[in-house]
Every structure is written in C-alpha cells, then in structure tokens.
Design a protein that fits this description.
0% of the residues lie in helices and 39% in strands. The radius of gyration is 17 Å and the shape is globular. The protein has no helices and 17 strands.
C-alpha cells in the first residue's frame, strides 16, 4: 500500500454519515448522499430505518431507537444494499458497535457486534462490497492486556458471521492514533492520524492508503 498525507481525490460518501455532536451526543441525519438502493427489495418507507429521507437540515436520527438520551451515538454507516445499519455507542466512557438489519421487511432491534470489557470499538465503516467492516479500537495487538493507542482494525464476513478482529497493519497504523476511516470507489482508504504531532497538541492530519 502507498501511504501519503493530503487530500487530492474525493472520498466515498455514497452510503454513510457521521454524527454532529450535542449533549448528549446523538446521530443527526443531514443531506449527505446515500446509495440509490435500486436493487434493494425493501419497501420505500423502510429506508433510513423508516425515517424521512435526508435533506440539508440536520435532525436527530431515529430518536428512541438509535439516538437515545442515555447514551452517545456516533460513526454510522449503511451497507451498500441498504439492508444493514452499523453505528457506535459510548457507554460509561467505552464504545461498542451495534447493528440493525432488515428482517421480513422490518428493521430488527439493535444487536451488539463488537464489544469488550476493556477495549472500545467505534467508527464502523464498510468496504464497497460489504465484505469487511473496518473500525477503530484501542485493543492490544494480542487481544489481551492493557489498552493501547487507537488503531484501524477490521473483521471479515464469514458465512453470515464476522471473523475475529484483525489489525490493519503497520502500513496503516502507527504508535499514535488513527481515526475516521472512509473509502473511495477505487478502494483508496482515507483516515486521520496524529502520527506527525511532535508537540502533543492532538494535531491530526488526513492520510490516504492506496490498495
């Protein structure tokens, strides 16, 4: 992979959104492009979890089902066919990743797909083929022991289940934090990192890694 900093090609924004924060933090739906889902078989009213289609005015997304008063929600993504929805929830300072899916024409209740008693799992983002779910985590490289800095990880879809977490490797990750993953249509990954911050002021830059 070729890793460089900068931002000279558009990132993929055709099926995801991130939250805008308030207190408590909730997911706000705004005018970001979603997939056309032309091949998706669910009813039109079930798109966006039965919420109105997005426009240019931010609003709380799926209040009571996704956005809840007692927790912080952020980092959300729809699958390419629109039948799955992944998002992160922070509870007592630790994040987990949850998912809903279309079942018999209706959205299921949220289920937790990534959770640990020590580590956080947040900022989920799917690849274009929906076969890999990327996320960030402060999990140790061996999966046990104390927390480390935030790295980019992923799981692979295996017969309707997800694999064990896999670290994206040293071409992507550093000894500092990596956040906010996204992909272009040709598979280039964009992400944020403070690896070049020598003054300890949380100065983050945008990087890309070409497949």
């Amino acid at each position: 992979m070729n890793l460089s900093s900068g931002f000279n090609e558009p990132t993929r924004q055709n099926h995801y959104f991130y939250c805008m924060k308030k207190v408590p933090c909730v997911i706000l739906l705004a005018g970001i492009a979603f997939p056309s889902w032309q091949a998706c078989s669910q009813n039109a009213e079930s798109k966006y979890l039965n919420e109105p289609p997005p426009n240019t005015t931010p609003r709380v997304f799926a209040p009571g089902k996704i956005s809840r008063e007692e927790s912080f929600e952020f980092g959300a993504v729809f699958s390419n066919d629109g039948k799955e929805f992944y998002y992160a929830v922070e509870i007592s300072g630790k994040a987990e990743t949850r998912m809903l899916k279309i079942e018999n024409g209706n959205w299921s209740e949220p289920v937790t797909v990534l959770k640990h008693e020590v580590y956080s799992f947040n900022d989920p983002f799917l690849t274009l083929d929906d076969k890999k779910l990327f996320f960030i985590s402060n999990r140790s490289l061996i999966g046990t022991g104390p927390k480390k800095d935030y790295d980019i990880w992923y799981v692979e879809r295996e017969n309707s289940k997800w694999s064990e977490p896999k670290n994206a490797g040293s071409n992507i990750n550093s000894e500092k934090n990596e956040y906010y993953i996204s992909f272009t249509k040709n598979g280039t990954m964009y992400f944020s990192s403070n690896r070049a911050d020598l003054e300890g002021i949380n100065n983050y830059d945008i990087y890309r890694s070409e497949n």
